Amino acid sequence: xxxxxxxxxxxxxxxxxxxxxxxxxxxxxxxxxxxxxxxxxxxxxxxxxxxxxxxxxxxxxxxxxxxxxxxxxxxxxxxxxxxxxxxxxxxxxxxxxxxxxxxxxxxxxxxxxxxxxxxxxxxxxxxxxxxxxxxxxxxxxxxxxxxxxxxxxxxxxxxxxxxxxxxxxxxxxxxxxxxxxxxxxxxxxxxxxxxxxxxxxxxxxxxxxxxxxxxxxxxxxxxxxxxxxxxxxxxxxxxxxxxxxxxxxxxxxxxxxxxxxxxxxxxxxxxxxxxxxxxxxxxxxxxxxxxxxxxxxxxxxxxxxxxxxxxxxxxxxxxxxxxxxxxxxxxxxxxxxxxxxxxxxxxxxxxxxxxxxxxxxxxxxxxxxxxxxxxxxxxxxxxxxxxxxxxxxxxxxxxxxxxxxxxxxxxxxxxxxxxxxxxxxxxxxxxxxxxxxxxxxxxxxxxxxxxxxxxxxxxxxxxxxxxxxxxxxxxxxxxxxxxxxxxxxxxxxxxxxxxxxxxxxxxxxxxxxxxxxxxxxxxxxxxxxxxxxxxxxxxxxxxxxxxxxxxxxxxxxxxxxxxxxxxxxxxxxxxxxxxxxxxxxxxxxxxxxxxxxxxxxxx
Length: 603
Known about the structure:
Elements: H1 3-26, H2 59-67, H3 70-88, H4 91-100, E1 105-113, E2 121-123, E3 127-130, E4 133-136, E5 142-148, E6 151-158, E7 165-171, H5 183-189, E8 191-195, E9 201-209, E10 220-223, E11 226-228, E12 235-240, E13 247-253, E14 262-266, E15 274-277, E16 282-290, E17 292-299, E18 306-309, E19 320-323, E20 329-334, E21 349-354, E22 359-365, E23 370-375, E24 378-384, E25 391-397, E26 402-409, E27 411-418, E28 421-429, E29 435-443, E30 449-456, E31 462-465, E32 468-472, E33 479-483, E34 488-491, E35 502-503, E36 513-520, E37 523-530, E38 536-542, E39 545-552, E40 555-561, E41 566-572, E42 579-583
Parallel strand pairs: 1-8, 9-15
Antiparallel strand pairs: 1-2, 1-5, 2-11, 3-4, 3-6, 6-7, 9-12, 10-11, 10-13, 13-14, 16-17, 17-18, 19-20, 20-21, 21-22, 23-24, 24-25, 25-26, 27-28, 28-29, 29-30, 31-32, 32-33, 33-34, 35-36, 36-37, 37-38, 39-40, 40-41, 41-42
């Protein structure tokens, strides 16, 4: 062992002794007052080894454990549902949700001007701002926004001459989908009416029917960009902007019931002037006012007379002209072309007249024509056949200018047109000089015919309504009733209806009334009958009344042919006295014509 090794050993021992000394100094010193047996003894007891503390798990590991637990998912779903329900029943959050998924609603805004005691006037050209977006009201005062979000919509409406109006519309989405009502309230909230107070001069007038004298309560009246309506008394009130001319210009828009016109009213008028309006419709008639017998038209008050078809100078006084129920077409029977038969005898021709285009189209030619009645654009008539000895019952469709033969016979004693059907009495040669009469019907649509009775007394046929007639069969003398609408026959008692009465097949413009002409106290009496109630109203009575007779809306045009005048007149079913339309040229029936009704003919 080298000296260096010995020195190192000594240093290690010295350090061990130093460590032992420090350990003894830390021990409790002995108590000198206690005997040795009671002195504390240092025990060299080694404490048990303690278990190491558990380290906390990482967050990711804890999340994995939690996501594997079903309870966590149940509680999460319940919590989410509860949150959504809470948000759904709070309006702002509900609006956010429905807007988020793209749901939209329609907002309709109507700009009006309030009027005293009347419907508000519609205001055109109003600038409407909705949540910063600009719109302009149309001719009906409306702005329709079809893609509006739910929630509060702030609306501002302005127009020069009117006070600005502001409104907030709450467009809600019902949380219960209207299961418990509320649909009407939500719909009302989407239809906003904004009232703009006019800054102008009060103006009023009364709208009256020229013919009946009754107030006009329907329709609109345009004043600049504003549209106003009449009250139940026909009074129209509004405020007009000041004008340098001292007048206001008004344009009527009466939906075809009356002839529209533009008129002015003084702004300083103290009273409400009465403005009359002529019922819409035209009178079509024949006249020699330009020399030859031509076709003319006029308004129902006789104004705006216009020649439609000029005459040729070859027309005879037996010329006949009739107009379809809606005034679209006419049928003219005339010798205007000077046509002749094989023997050189002048014969009349039948022409369809397009009244708007002023065009004539020839459709038939015969020795004479007997007109029955119109059914829409179709006119039923009969004429002798070209071979002679027989007659043909025909219908001309004015819209297509097509003629169809329905039946042939030696002659026809009665033709009743109604509901696109014609019931007719056909005469055929019998034994000796006698003729047998049969009753049949024809469909004007498909031209099919059906015989109803093979032997009847032609002189017993009585029309009891526009679509019914009674007759007596020859053999058993039994009375029967025919319903033209159904084509059915029933046994009836002898009719008490006046045999002189005749019915016009076409109804009034609205389809609610029919016309009857009967002879009462020696006068032809014109009566209107309401189809639904049977209520009758006498419109006029005169021994000088003749055809043509037709409807023009709810007014009736007829002719007076007396020693002092030949003129067309018009009378209203709403009341009032008849008024003259215009003088016309008298024409007489052809001497060969057998009248439909010996007392009165409509054409």
